[in-house]
Specification:
Pfam families: dsDNA_bind. The protein has 127 residues and is mainly alpha-helical. 72% of the residues lie in helices and 0% in strands. It starts with a helix and ends in an 18-residue tail after the last helix.
Length: 127
């Protein structure tokens, strides 16, 4: 479905990463501008693909999530794009399906917190 577009985005991202590692901070202004343009173009392509995959309600919910937890929204977008690329998604993702996907991700990444309280004993206390 969107396999060539995703592959093009991956290639651009890999080129950006290689340029950052190789070039470091010795880049000229034209190289930095080209990198910024490539990033914005890749993000534009990503949003276009998400528009094709998600319903308007699901996009709105994902946008609200991105306001609060941008890294979580990015992760959900990645999962959706990968599923679309592999052919697991054949129709538009509704808000209900997005909610179930979010619940699955929350269950997988939930962290249990354990609180242990230790009381200090001092020499002045008597047992």
């Amino acid at each position: 479905m969107a396999d060539p577009e995703l592959e093009a985005i991956r290639q651009r991202r890999m080129q950006e990463l290689m340029a950052q590692r190789g070039g470091g901070s010795h880049q000229g202004p034209e190289q930095q501008k080209a990198q910024e343009e490539a990033k914005s173009e890749a993000e534009e392509q990503r949003q276009l693909m998400l528009t094709r995959i998600l319903t308007s309600e699901a996009r709105a919910r994902l946008a609200r999530i991105a306001l609060v937890k941008p890294e979580k929204a990015r992760g959900v977008e990645d999962v959706i794009l990968r599923a679309a690329q592999t052919g697991q998604i054949v129709e538009k993702v509704s808000e209900e399906r997005l909610i179930s996907l979010l619940e699955q991700i929350n269950n997988q990444t939930s962290k249990e917190t354990k609180v242990t309280i230790r009381r200090r004993t001092s020499a002045l206390e008597d047992d």
